[in-house]
DNA sequence: GATGAAATCCGAGTCAC
DNA sequence: GTGACTCGGATTTCATC
């Protein structure tokens, strides 16, 4: 993968990105028509965008409820030490937890903010008691149950 | 769109979902091979999963840095009143803000948690001063700059 | 150095079974 | 759910600017 930050994107590239961000399963022929280039050119451009890492993947979005993951929980985590080793250990362990969809190191009242999907509150309590507080170096967690998902994973505005 | 919560998913459906979640641009022929069914069957199953709303869409993931959106910020919001009208007004306004990727109503110290992508801190300060604190009913915000994205938008674990 | 037209081959989508 | 059949798209080649 090339350094995507070096890629120079012209208008056609941007149109391809925007279109595929909205409809990732478009055929090359349709995509070409939408962005007003020939199918051959569109194919080459799109391939380049993948190779350069501008497009990191194309993924189907699954309705969480359809696969029994109706509950969304945000968790703020505070570690008991602020050493590089402490952060690395925590991050390594969190990467193994499939229920954790997002994990970000932040500046503020917490060290990390996690986004977690589980079946229900009972499931979360189990995860919290057995996994989260057992993660390396965790001093404290604060849980925010999501009561309503107003907007989830909106497309990038560019 | 049907009620996806009523759909009964068998093993083949689940394999299709998992596979398309990882590689949304697979051809039907390849998908059929991966899940061990005939192309015709695979095609009908996949179509059904879309129609039932189990698959809500297929989207290309764009590297944020490639389109000049390198900064990620989480923001906790507290409203000054907890009335249904107040919540509705806030939510309606937030849906218009393209920089806000996620917005969730939560239980805890905040009313809402937002996930925001912008170019840099200067951009965020402008957004914060001109748009966020001007949203209807906002009493207070707390900003968490993301210093490191450990995990972003991981696939659903099912 | 990238483009579009044409040419080949393979998959999508639909049928009967 | 399978197998076959037709049509259209994916992908490459090549001449061109």
Offer a few descriptive terms.
four-stranded antiparallel sheet; 158 residues; alpha+beta; homodimer; Alpha-Beta Plaits; 2 domains; AsnC family transcriptional regulator (chains A, B); DNA-binding; Arc Repressor Mutant, subunit A
What does this structure look like?
Two copies of one chain form a homodimer. The radius of gyration of chain A is 20 Å and the shape is elongated. The longest helix of chain A is centred in the N-terminal third of the chain and has 13 residues, at 39-51. Chain A has two domains: 10-51, Arc Repressor Mutant, subunit A (Orthogonal Bundle), CATH 1.10.10.10; 69-145, Alpha-Beta Plaits, CATH 3.30.70. The first copy, chain A, is of the alpha+beta class. Residues 1-5 of chain A have low confidence and may be disordered. Chain A has a four-stranded antiparallel beta sheet with strand order 3-4-2-5. Chain A has five helices and five strands, in the order αααββαββαβ. In chain A, helix 1 crosses helix 2 and helix 1 crosses helix 3. Chain A has helices at residues 11-22, 28-35, 39-51, 84-96, 121-132; strands spanning 55-62, 71-79, 100-107, 112-118, 138-151. The interface between A and B is large, with 68 and 68 residues. Strand 5 of chain A pairs antiparallel with strand 3 (100-107) of chain B. The first copy, chain A, binds a DNA duplex (17 and 17 nucleotides) through residues 27-30, 37-41, 43-44.
